[in-house]
Amino acid sequence: MKSLFRAIRVAWLFLWAFIATLILCIPVIIAALLSRTGNLAFSLSKIWAYIMLAVSFVRAEIKNKARIIKGQSYVIISNHQSQYDILALVTTLGIQFRWIGKKEVLKIPIFGYALYASRNIFIDRSNTASAIESINKGMDRLPKGASVMVFAEGTRSADGQIQEFKKGGFMVAILRKIPILPVTVNGSLRVLPKGSLVVKPGKIQVVIGDPIDTSGYTTAIVQELIDKTRQAIMANFDPGYRGKAD
Prior knowledge:
Layout: H1 2-34, H2 39-56, E1 58-63, E2 75-78, H3 84-92, E3 97-102, H4 111-117, E4 121-123, H5 128-140, E5 147-151, H6 168-176, E6 180-186, H7 188-191, E7 202-208, H8 222-235
Parallel strand pairs: 1-7, 2-5, 2-6, 3-4, 3-5
Antiparallel strand pairs: 6-7
Helix pairs in contact: 1-2, 1-4, 2-3, 5-6
């Protein structure tokens, strides 16, 4: 009976993912292809995220949102525990940002080009130098005031602990003198662990840390910036987070 219940929950989620994608896919692609900034496509993608949170009975909440200055570009650095991190970040931050993702996504017909046209950034994760160059080129294509989102661990954490950070996003932040916005996501591992298809209802918390000025850093001391950012994210990390009872 338990296995049947889990199968039903997975089927329910996949059904809604299909419906939401079917409804929004064409509008998002058209918006991405016609827009010079990609802002409309990003805004439309939020609808998909809101739908998936709702049908999963998952609520995302944000803390310290006032620390985000509208119109300021950031390199947003976040921990990464679950695919639901993406939904939580898209629906709570309230600013335009673009993702850094693996270049293989570009091979998807039409959709891959739409993501590129939306000003998202794609990298070769196996080549650090190439990845940094791709991020730099992608930053040149960003609309004014937009930020870039980096999961600095490179992949989802299997055990929920915050792993070591890769330096790509930090190098770009230093070279372009863009402040870093440290963001901590709590609770998403319980909602959907890595390798699982079963989503558990619950709450995800997004905590905004104080922006970090990068003007005093150079590439020679990038590790100091990495360590400072990681410490800021860990300071707000609550691995046992479940949300306060209503």
